[in-house]
Amino acid sequence: MDSLLNTDRPPVFCPGCAHERVLHALDQALIGMGLTGRQVVIVTDIGCSGLFDTFFNTHAFHGLHGRALTYATGIKMARSELTVIVTMGDGGLGIGGAHVLSTCRRNIDLTLLVLNNFNYGMTGGQCSSTTPRDAEVGSGFLNRLEKPMDICQVAGTAGAAMVSRVSTYDEGLVRHLQEAIAYDGFSLVDIWGICPGRYARQNRLTPRRIADSIAELPDLSSFKTLNDRMEYGRAYRQEAVLQDAPPDPVRIEPVFKAPWKGRREVVVLGGAGQRIVTAGELLCLAGAAAGCYATQKNDYPVTVMRGHSVSEVILSETEIEYAGIENPAVVIALAAEGVGRRKGMFGRLSPESMVIRALGVALPPCGATVVDIDFKSKQIKSPDWALASLAVLARENRILTMAMLKKALELRYSEGVLEAALTVVEKTNISRHFNIS
Amino acid sequence: MGLTLMEGNEAIAWGALAAGCRFFAGYPITPATTIYNTMLRLLPPNGGICLQGEDEIASIGFCLGASMAGLKAMTATSGPGMSLYSEQISFALGSEIPIVIVDVQRLGPSTGSATKGADGDIQFLQWGNSGGLPVIVLAPVDVKDCYVLTMQAFNLAERFRCPVFLAANKEVSMIRETLDLERLRLPEVLERRMADGREPFLPFAAREGRYVPDFLPIGGQTLVRQTSSTHGPDGYITTDPNQIALMQARRFAKISTAASKITCYDEYPVANPDTLVIAYGVTARAARAAVKRVEESGGKAGLLVLKTLWPVPEALIREKAAPCRRVIVPEMNLGQYVREIERILPGKTIDFIGQMNGELITPGRIQEVIQHG
């Protein structure tokens, strides 16, 4: 079978560069595996290792420094049949560290060849994440202050099963690459080599020294059993077919008539756990059941089960333009936290506005009509106060009717929960006896 | 008439699915997260892929790979994530990779306020890349737009082989709103134009009379090469100044000369207007209420709602502003798009209403400026 090297673009590495040996070894490996250029994508990033894609007659993707694994992941997920090989230097390894770790954890079927020559060759020999502390490099004393990274130990610890280290000058390099490429999952090969232009002139690095150094390092084969698991793409596809397609968005037909005309604004002010947002949604659904347009804006902190919860709902016969609250017809005040978030609003309320207040909640001075409700005496628990307030409004035919509310509950809740919600609604049956101040 | 209650971000996800999106990757960030959540429910059972990247850089990188492999791809984030997207956006622009990027703007700068809206990224979207090439930015006004403009964003990305931004805002994306899905006027779904497979395939050469190169996916029968580096039509690195200049000019021209085809807008015209309000995004809703109130009190203010922000619809703005003595530009920032309006309408009185405190600009405030300067 023919070489996959690009005869129009012969390699242009510095004389003696380790990369060129790896290039030919990779070509031999691919030929030996019977792969054609159409079946292979070489993904590279910046630097000398980034020249690899140019020298091959395969599909090629050359991207930003340290990001090669991100593109390779997208390509492999989109076309699982491709053999995707990523080359990266020790520079790309450092800048793209998070991607390396995550790719190890993911175990997607990519092969990462780390062309490790212990320095940033293309920019003048600065130190990288693998530069030994005693090396002389273009970064002055800085490399003496940092411990070099053993990428194989890092990758294995991060979850890569197929992790190996090999010298560029190892006679078994081709077979070594083939094993990595053939592995059904993520494989990483740390390939140590000499950068004659920027590193070897100041540092006495030889093939022999590389071989000796590698031989002294711990064996990596245990990661293969330790991290063995299904390839990510296959696992993904297995899970994906088990997922139920979500139903189409619910279409609410208008079957009722709203008990008002124009635009109505409702603000529900409560605390976390009071199902304020759900009440706002119920109001929107009720409005839609009467053919009204609705908007709902919510405001709550990022913490869960603590702090305020505010829902602002607008219902209108015509499409809603401005979705902010200007002149609320009803304010439901159920907790100090919610009232505190909108305290500036109360001074602007007119006598036409109605405030439904849970007994004991302090309000700023306001000119609205305030209706106090003692939910506790009706055995209505705090998480149901917002729903009960909607029921009170429905009994007064203010904002919504009881039929609209019940339709909203049917749309929102499944059977068991629906019954519980209707029980809450029933408990407000004596609303006319509530203390209206 | 039947109505559906839907969040803006959900509408973006459903619009993407309808446009043929089959790849989404994102990183959780308020207020964009519910796009990711919805795509995770929509894509896997529909034969698509939805991934969570280890960061924003990875998320958009996955999308660029998947797009080059032939899938329609989308990602979504907010301001802090857009900052991280920047290098990949430059790549997508320079290397003509179709992708839809949703920026659900939140109050900035920096980490800012996760749950407060603003339109603070409007200039950043155009200029947040290296190289200064034109970009396409669409801005939804409401949940309906979230659905329809997302579809249009895909169409434009495919047609022009480029990233297309949706400049949403927390106030549009996280509002729940009713819409009549059956009455939406949906655009026809477009696909990127494939090369006919003649060898050799030149991935960055446009056919005679065209600016947009034909496409072939990585992984097909014809070898395809993609590169972030300065390249010629063949996708190989080049240092030839003439070739570089031609490539830059073509990429520039493919967007800038098509501005009128990309322009999308809405208006509330009045006869013999004295004033024109030019608004976009959620602020356009307040502006519409304001000009109606002005009309009810006998005033003459029209409204132009820009749904394409970039490339700037200059001809449209000139045409609509021509009969007006004064132009008012309200924005949820401290003055960003108004710079474009001032540039396009020299000599015209332009009043800016800026606000960047996490609150909506009210109709009353716009009405006040229309009627009382």
UniProtKB/TrEMBL annotation, chain A:
One of its GO terms (biological process) is small molecule metabolic process. Coiled coil: none annotated. GO terms for molecular function: oxidoreductase activity, acting on the aldehyde or oxo group of donors, iron-sulfur protein as acceptor; thiamine pyrophosphate binding. InterPro entries: 2-oxoacid:Fd_oxidoreductase, Pyrv/ketoisovalerate_OxRed_cat, Pyrv_flavodox_OxRed_cen, THDP-binding, TPP_enzyme_TPP-bd. Keywords: Oxidoreductase. Residues 273-356 form the Pyruvate/ketoisovalerate oxidoreductase catalytic domain. It holds the Pfam family TPP_enzyme_C. It comes from the Bacteria. Residues 45-191 form the Thiamine pyrophosphate enzyme TPP-binding domain. This is Thiamine pyrophosphate TPP-binding domain-containing protein.
TrEMBL record, chain B:
The keyword Secreted does not apply. GO terms for biological process: response to oxidative stress. Residues 274-364 form the Pyruvate:ferredoxin oxidoreductase core domain. CDD domains: TPP_PYR_PFOR_IOR-alpha_like. The keyword Oxidoreductase applies. SUPFAM superfamilies: Thiamin diphosphate-binding fold (THDP-binding) (SSF52518), TK C-terminal domain-like (SSF52922). Keywords: Oxidoreductase, Pyruvate. Residues 15-240 form the Pyruvate flavodoxin/ferredoxin oxidoreductase pyrimidine binding domain. GO terms for molecular function: oxidoreductase activity. This is Pyruvate flavodoxin/ferredoxin oxidoreductase domain protein. It comes from Desulfococcus multivorans DSM 2059.
